[in-house]
Amino acid sequence: DAGVTQSPTHLIKTRGQQVTLRCSPKSGHDTVSWYQQALGQGPQFIFQYYEEEERQRGNFPDRFSGHQFPNYSSELNVNALLLGDSALYLCASSPRWGVGQPQHFGDGTRLSIL
Amino acid sequence: KNQVEQSPQSLIILEGKNCTLQCNYTVSPFSNLRWYKQDTGRGPVSLTIMTFSENTKSNGRYTATLDADTKQSSLHITASQLSDSASYICVVSHASGGSYIPTFGRGTSLIVHP
Question: Rounded distance, CA B27 to CA A92, Å?
Answer without folding.
Answer: 21
